[in-house]
């Protein structure tokens, strides 16, 4: 009996010690993203990943979906803990990771044919010092979603210019509607709104974010003018009262419920509207370009890409991870992704698979009206998001606000 | 014979020593190991990180007291500090006095006191995040329940922007905190009141003491140690306030409701669209929170001990 017990004990010990060695035979590729339709329950996404695994026996993929609100803290923690996944959405860390040598520089490892297939705006989003540090999985574009029933009832057309919008606001307000709904309680939408307007006034948001050119600063004229225009819009009741106390989701709900004539949002909303808005609105709403300064001006609006695949550099899995990225961007696989999600494609080849007319239309603006609205520089986003909230509630002047952004960004960079 | 006695003695001493020192040490070792690994070592590392610049990517660099010097010049830090003082004082006062009064009422033999205790306690079991989301909807300025209620009561002039109003945002959050914690602190006081001997009240009544006198001169002094606990819990809770505020306002508008907790999080991990963490700077904020919590807790515990009433 004792002998049997000893044999079992020794066998257990051997198995315990051998387990790590046995598991090392299998390569695990870790991917991380915030797209809920690509969670482990997603059939189409699993089918895509299975396709890659069939080509690579002995490899398994660990698919990690992290909801967007938790994504950045999760990524920050993984960076600090030196536990980066193999392929992941770089969020606003793409530049830092690339410059720090922690992620692959795609300009060095991908050929020109591969890199040139993407729209310029989304690729530009991830290009720093001439190097590309992320591959755009989708693109994005902001616009004004319009409730046709309200506009028809009031005899209005979508505004061509900001002056048009200010002029029609009293008519919409008097009828009991909000002209343009959106929410800024998380202070993340106001920068999306104001940054393209800086471009409309001739400012260079890329240069502002970088802030290395001594002739460019956040307290410059285009920034002051853009802040002044946003304040004008707020003071003329173009937005709902207390917009800083309204969340982005609440702003969308106000639009869905037919309480606002228009809604300011990104190109991911058509996919949400189909599921969340009443059928009548979902079937009839349309989208208009961001208003411009004059009818002849370009309707600059936020574009780029949020979802960009970054590959961890210098790991045992780097080569395999790069193969995965190339596989995901191959025409056959990318078309499946766009067909299933109806997201805005980051490359022209994907457009053929977009059935949603609103997304198709917004995609066509990428090459004509796209302006930067995502900041990567130290302190830039915090600087503008805080001041933007004060601009909306009128507690700061545009001049003082612009000066405060500049001071805050410089202070953040001096730390 | 003598040698044998000596051997026995030394063996006995050895066993005694073992029992006295080594066995307790052996039993304490696992807990001590986990405390050291998960509390002491990270705390020491955090203290050291407060003297470094680190963005999580490049190696950390030693910068001495620079983080703390920068904190002194950081307007948002001072705004956060002011908000923390405001929030902590208000929540400590209201979350001590209101539960105490309600517990006293419920303890007076009020009919249906069990039902009231249950109702008051209900919000305690809801998570702070859910509470925050719920109240964010209630406070929504355009179509939120609170303003709709005021409008339906004909009180349109009383409607406010609530969380969007930089003067009202902190009082709004304080109100939610009181609502959420009322049941918890009330139960603590209620339980403590059960331990006060009834003879004291009966004697006082015979001596002509009215309800207020009995509360003022018997209940309150007898609950002093409980009050100290409640005050300490409220103070620490106030200094490290984070979750409800983050969910409701993310510290906005423009830092109007920023606290040390939200500023620490924003600095360490970034907000929704922010990047470039200052982990050393954030740790310096965390150390400030730790020091404040420690100082206030020690003061309050000492004050509580001095005023302790013994039977």
Task: Describe the structure in your own words.
The complex is a heterodimer of chains A (about 425) and B (about 300). Chain A has about 425 residues and is α/β, with parallel strands linked by helices. Chain A folds into 2 domains: about 180 residues, 3-Layer(aba) Sandwich (D-Maltodextrin-Binding Protein, domain 2), CATH 3.40.190; about 200 residues, Periplasmic binding protein-like II (D-Maltodextrin-Binding Protein, domain 2, 3-Layer(aba) Sandwich). Chain A contains 21 helices and 13 strands. In chain A, the strands form 3 sheets. In chain A, strands 7, 8, 9, 10, 11 and 13 form a 6-stranded mixed β-sheet that branches. In chain A, helix 10 crosses helix 20, helix 12 packs parallel to helix 20 and helix 12 crosses helix 21. Chain A is globular. The model of chain A has no long low-confidence stretch (mean pLDDT about 90). With about 300 residues, chain B is an all-alpha fold. Chain B folds into 2 domains: about 30 residues; about 210 residues, MetI-like (MetI-like fold), CATH 1.10.3720. Chain B is about 70% helix and about 0% strand. A two-stranded antiparallel ribbon of chain B has the order 1-2. In chain B, a hairpin with a 7-residue loop joins strand 1 and strand 2. In chain B, helix 3 runs parallel beside helix 7 and helix 5 packs parallel to helix 11. Chain B starts with a helix and ends in a 5-residue tail after the last helix.
């Amino acid at each position: 009996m004792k002998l049997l017990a000893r044999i079992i004990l020794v066998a257990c010990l051997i198995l315990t010690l051998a387990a790590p060695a046995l598991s090392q035979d299998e390569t695990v590729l870790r991917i991380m993203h915030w797209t809920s339709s690509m969670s482990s329950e997603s059939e189409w996404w699993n089918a895509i990943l299975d396709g890659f695994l069939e080509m690579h026996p002995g490899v398994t993929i660990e698919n990690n979906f992290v909801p967007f609100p938790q994504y950045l803290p999760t990524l920050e923690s993984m960076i600090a803990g030196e536990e980066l996944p193999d392929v992941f959405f770089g969020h606003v860390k793409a530049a830092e990771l690339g410059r720090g040598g922690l992620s692959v520089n795609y300009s060095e490892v991908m050929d020109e044919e591969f890199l040139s297939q993407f729209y310029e705006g989304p690729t530009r989003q991830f290009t720093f010092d001439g190097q590309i540090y992320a591959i755009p999985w989708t693109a994005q574009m902001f616009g004004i979603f319009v409730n046709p029933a309200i506009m028809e009832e009031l005899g209005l057309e979508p505004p061509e210019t900001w002056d048009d919008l200010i002029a029609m606001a009293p008519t919409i307000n008097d009828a009991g509607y909000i002209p343009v709904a959106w929410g800024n309680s998380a202070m993340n939408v106001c920068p999306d709104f104001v940054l393209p307007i800086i471009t409309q006034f001739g400012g260079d948001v890329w240069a502002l974010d970088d802030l290395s050119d001594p002739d460019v600063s956040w307290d410059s004229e285009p920034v002051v003018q853009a802040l002044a225009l946003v304040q004008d819009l707020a003071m003329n009741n173009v937005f709902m009262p207390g917009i800083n106390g309204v969340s982005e989701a609440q702003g969308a709900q106000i639009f869905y419920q037919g309480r606002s004539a228009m809604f300011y949002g990104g190109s991911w909303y058509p996919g949400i509207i189909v599921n969340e808005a009443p059928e009548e609105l979902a079937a009839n709403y349309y989208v208009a370009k961001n208003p411009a300064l004059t009818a002849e001006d370009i309707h600059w609006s936020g574009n780029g890409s949020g979802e960009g695949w970054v590959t961890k550099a210098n790991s045992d899995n780097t080569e395999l991870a790069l193969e995965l990225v190339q596989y995901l961007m191959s025409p056959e696989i990318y078309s499946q992704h766009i067909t299933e999600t109806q997201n805005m494609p980051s490359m022209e080849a994907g457009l053929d698979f977009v059935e949603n007319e609103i997304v198709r239309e917004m995609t066509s603006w990428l090459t004509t009206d796209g302006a930067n609205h995502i900041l990567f520089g130290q302190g830039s986003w915090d600087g503008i998001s805080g001041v933007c909230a004060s601009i909306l509630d009128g507690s700061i002047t545009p001049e003082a606000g612009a000066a405060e952004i500049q001071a805050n960004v410089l202070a953040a960079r001096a730390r | 014979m003598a040698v044998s006695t000596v051997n026995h003695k030394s063996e006995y001493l050895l066993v005694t020593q073992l029992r006295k020192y080594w066995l307790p040490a052996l039993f304490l070792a696992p807990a001590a190991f986990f405390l050291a690994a998960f509390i002491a070592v990270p705390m020491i590392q955090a203290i050291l990180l407060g003297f470094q610049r680190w963005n999580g990517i490049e190696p950390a660099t030693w910068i001495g007291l620079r983080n703390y010097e920068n904190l002194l010049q950081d307007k948002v830090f001072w705004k956060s500090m002011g908000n923390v003082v405001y929030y902590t004082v208000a929540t400590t006062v209201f979350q001590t006095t209101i539960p105490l009064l309600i517990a006293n009422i419920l303890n007076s033999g009020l009919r249906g006191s069990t039902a009231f205790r249950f109702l008051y306690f209900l919000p305690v079991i809801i998570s702070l995040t859910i509470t925050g989301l719920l109240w964010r909807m209630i406070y929504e300025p355009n179509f939120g329940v609170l303003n709709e209620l005021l409008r339906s009561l004909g009180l349109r002039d009383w409607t406010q922007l609530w969380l969007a109003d930089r003067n009202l945002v902190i009082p709004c959050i304080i109100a939610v905190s009181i609502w959420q914690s009322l049941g918890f602190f009330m139960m603590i006081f209620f339980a403590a009141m059960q331990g006060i001997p009834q003879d004291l009240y009966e004697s006082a009544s015979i001596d002509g003491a009215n309800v207020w006198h009995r509360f003022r001169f018997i209940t309150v002094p007898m609950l002093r140690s409980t009050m100290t606990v409640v005050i300490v819990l409220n103070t620490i809770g106030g200094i490290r306030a984070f979750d409800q505020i983050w969910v409701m306002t993310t510290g906005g508008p423009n830092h109007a409701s920023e606290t040390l907790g939200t500023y620490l999080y924003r600095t360490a991990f970034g907000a929704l669209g922010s990047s470039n963490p200052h982990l050393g700077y954030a740790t310096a904020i965390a150390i400030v929170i730790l020091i404040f919590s420690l100082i206030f807790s020690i003061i309050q515990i000492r004050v509580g001990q001095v005023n302790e009433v013994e039977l």
